Amino acid sequence: MTVIELANQPPSFSWPTLHSINWHLTPSLSGTTILTLNGSLRTGWLGKLSSFLLRNEINIIGGTARKNGSLYWNASLEIETGQETLSKLAGFSPETVLCDFEIPLATVPIKLSDFRAEYTSKHGGSFYVEATGEDCMGFLHGILRAFSFSSMFPTEFEITTKGNTVFDRFWLKGIGASIPIKDDMKSLHERLHVMLGTI
Questions:
Q1: Which among 7, 68, 120, 130 is placed 20 to 30 Å from 189, CA to CA?
Q2: Residue 58 Ramachandran class (φ > 0 left, ψ -120 to 50 alpha, else beta)
Q3: Does domain 112-196 have CATH number 3.30.70.260?
């Protein structure tokens, strides 16, 4: 993959392959930074990455990711940028954050304004969740924790931020990429209601 540096933009960063993971940081024309990764990623990688970004006060404002195979992912995340943000990202080690060590997860309370959750046949059977709420630092990390408490993990997701509103979509699988079981889907539905403040 070729990383192109944009005129009058901070330089892009890239890392060599680490544990079959390729990373790139590329400035966009809109002034944000695109963080892309491709490769074999263990279950829970997104939670560890979102925890790292939260602890460094780096906000994810958009992106997509999809699992293509047992461990292989293609992901592109748009983050709010600035020279300080780039410095923090340039200094961290992908293999430390995602592969070799457990990163302590910070807790951040989030509240949903609306959600939708239902079983779907996509990905051979998955639990589909739409989550809407006010944009805040750590929104993604907070909702991923809710998923993990119900033993479900994304196999595909889309993150969108418009103004101060977050609209995220997730297709979730159970442990070992299994089809989610009824009890776990019920548990997650109840957790989402709690985050909505209606239970």
A1: 68
A2: beta
A3: yes
With beta carbons less than 8 A apart as the criterion, state whether 1 and 22 touch: yes
Condensed to tens digits (0 to 9), the pLDDT of residues 92-143 reads 666 667 765 555 555 667 899 999 999 999 999 999 999 999 998 889 989 9
**Assigned CATH for 15-100:** 3.30.70.260
Classify residue 168 as exposed, middle or buried by CB count within 10 Å of its CB (0-12, 13-18, 19+): buried
Residue 179 burial (CB count, 10 A): 13
174 vs 187: CA distance, rounded Å: 13
The pTM (predicted TM-score) of the whole model is 0.83
Name residues whose C-beta falls within 8 Å of residue 29's C-beta, 6 or more positions apart in sequence. 6
In tens, the pLDDT along 3-45 reads: 333 333 444 444 344 457 888 888 888 888 888 999 888 888 8
39 with 27: CB under 8 angstroms?
A: no
85 - beta bridge partners?
A: none
As annotated, the residues of the chain forming the CATH 3.30.70.260 domain(s) are 15-100, 112-196
Cα–Cα dist 49/96, whole Å: 10
Long-range CB pairs of 22-25, under 8 A, 24+ apart, other chains included:
23/94, 25/86, 25/89, 25/90
